[in-house]
Write a structure and sequence with these properties.
Helix content is 34%, strand content 17%. Helix 1 crosses helix 2, helix 3 crosses helix 8 and helix 5 packs across helix 7. The two termini are 25 Å apart. The protein has 336 residues and is α+β, with helices and mostly antiparallel strands.
Length: 336
């Protein structure tokens, strides 16, 4: 109640503080203009959808943790709670296979490609211009061979990731790229829902020469180091971090990012891939809600439709009579 009273005392500042925690400003290159900056309605819609998404993920994550604690009451506290990041290495054979399949993948130019239903950030993502993005990273197209090797790798580390997170988890989508020499990334947090984390694999290894990821834990920088198949899972929306580029003269550093989603059972198989991958707008398990035994109001399509309408209504000035703004299909916000 005290927190709620503080919010009511200065709601504008409370919202500003929340936004600052979820997304720190990025260094925007000269000349970059978001395609939505000049469209106030689009900006309102995006912010409303994002707020609804974060709320849904908070509730879903809390339920997943409660389910896990009920099933495994003796399980220790999650490792990320105390140390913020966990690092491991794949067995040599799995690490070598991951590197081999990565290097066999076709290189492709950057484009704004993401799986259906995945989020985007038009305001704090200054790297959406292909020419700028391609100077930093060389993206690869996911092959069937790499997908198979990645699923094997994720299956091998599934128990360690579970222990790190303190709940069951499901692999989301994957992003495949190599970081070019001479182009460090900026220090940032990802601004994702706090229950959604990032797993990173380095198929050819990581370190001071070949480049790595730098995490700020406490006040100290931690550099991920290891041989082929080293990996980390970390609090990417709480810990400031940055990409450390390979030293000049070193080859691009292979990297695979996988979104780790809270779940009610472990499922380490990736669910899609893209060049630009974040997190799903809505928790993923609703995709299986189909068939005669599912109430019509709770099919995947029905839930997604209501969520889209809620975002549209949040983005509008809600009338006191409960009638819907134009474009909401005749439903009032009291109906949702």
């Amino acid at each position: 109640m005290n927190a709620f009273k503080e919010l009511l005392a200065d709601p504008a500042q409370a919202v500003a503080d929340l936004v600052a925690r979820e997304r720190e400003p990025a260094d925007i290159p000269d000349g970059y203009v978001s395609p939505l900056v000049g469209d106030p309605k689009a900006i309102q819609w995006f912010r409303a959808r994002r707020a609804l998404s974060f709320y849904a993920w908070d509730i879903y994550t809390g339920a997943a943790i409660a389910h896990y604690r009920a099933q495994k009451p003796a399980a220790p506290a999650p490792l990320l709670k105390s140390i913020g990041a966990c690092v491991g290495e794949l067995p040599p054979e799995a690490g070598a296979r991951l590197e081999q399949e990565f290097l066999a993948c076709k290189q492709v130019p950057w484009r704004d490609q993401r799986p259906d239903g995945y989020s985007f950030d038009p305001f704090a993502n200054p790297w959406s211009t292909p020419a700028y993005r391609d100077t930093i990273t060389a993206h690869r197209e996911m092959s069937a061979g790499l997908e198979g090797a990645l699923n094997v790798a994720l299956t091998l580390i599934a128990p360690a990731v579970e222990a790190a997170l303190g709940h069951y988890w499901s692999a989301g989508a994957a992003r495949v790229y190599a970081h070019n020499a001479g182009h460090d990334g900026g220090m940032h947090t990802d601004g994702w829902p706090l229950g959604v984390r990032k797993i990173m694999f380095y198929p050819s290894g990581a370190g001071d020469d070949q480049g790595s990821t730098v995490l700020i834990i406490g006040e100290e920088p931690k550099i991920i180091r290891g041989g082929k198949g080293v990996w980390t899972v970390f609090e990417n929306s709480l810990l400031r971090h940055m990409a450390r580029a390979p030293l000049p003269g070193q080859p691009p550093r292979p990297t695979i990012e996988v979104t780790a989603l809270p779940a009610f059972r472990n499922d380490p198989r990736i669910k899609g891939h893209g060049i630009h991958v974040g997190f799903p707008w809505l928790p993923p398990d609703i995709d299986g809600l189909e068939g005669d035994k599912v109430p019509a109001a709770f099919t995947s399509e029905a839930i997604k439709q209501r969520s889209a309408l809620r975002a549209l209504m949040l983005a509008a000035d809600l009338p006191s009579d409960g009638k819907a703004p134009e474009g909401c299909g005749g439903l009032g916000y009291l109906d949702l």
